[in-house]
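Repro:
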Amino acid sequence: MGQGIVDDLLADGTHVDLILDRGKRGQSYRNIPILAIEDAGDGRLADRTVLLGLHNHYVDIKKIHAELLAAGVARVLTPIYPPVLAPNARTRPGYWLDSDFSYDAHLGDFARIRALLEDDQSRDLLDTIIRYRQSGDIANCPSPSQEDEYTPHDPPRLKEPLRIVDCGAFTGVAIHKFLKAGYTIASLVAFEPDPDNFAILASRDFGNIRSLCLPLGTWSETQQLRFTNDGSMASRLSDDGDTIIQCVAIDDVLHGAPVNVVKLDVEGAEIETLKGMRRIIETEKPALLVSAYHLPAHLFEIIDLIHSWKMGYRFHLRVHEFNTFGIVVYAFHD
């Protein structure tokens, strides 16, 4: 993505003096030298503007921001800014950063969702996320709670033993998080359509847990859809995907199976997957742990959908990864 941003800036006539990348120090890109921050300790960064070419959950941009300020940088911009600096920019970072989505235009939606959140921590977090995504000001970027994704101490602990449906199971990461948090798991049904991820998932030893791993995607209906398969956490349904996979509505697969926890991280298909399990949700009232960062509107659409069913769910919001990735809606029923 950094390369794309540099290309956009150069194409729009913006001069790029140097690139900072510790992993590629000593190299160059388009005849622009690549340095580490340490290499620029001679005052070369003093009073300069730096644009971060990062948009992922791996990197603590607050730490990078502090390092840049310590090196004398006057202004640090985030990937929110390339369309402003280069109006013809072609780089589209994706996920929650979509230049076609206006956070200002949806303030009413965010206010409505804010009123549905159960606790001050959730409401404050929503306010902080919106400020950050509107302004690009790194000071507003919330710090993640990295150690307790799906298992936060507050909201309340999940009811045991867990009977889990895991949609977008990847390689079984969430199950190990539940076990690490001390939960007893009675059963697991895991859905993972990426064949490389599924091979690892199916080979995992989950001990005495009664488990069923299925190489399927999840959707609102049972049908075949195109899929981008890259063997990563970001494998996803896509109109221009390189393969076709079988997707299922969970209601078509699980008939009467006891379920008390549903975890959803399906790379943007969360809304459709919820629609495809409405009968089970209505019957079993499971805790719903739903990722809400893949698309900007999911920050309000997921809660809107569940609330519209009038099943008595209560909502909490937490963020578990850097840069407002890893946002999870926690919906609980008494």
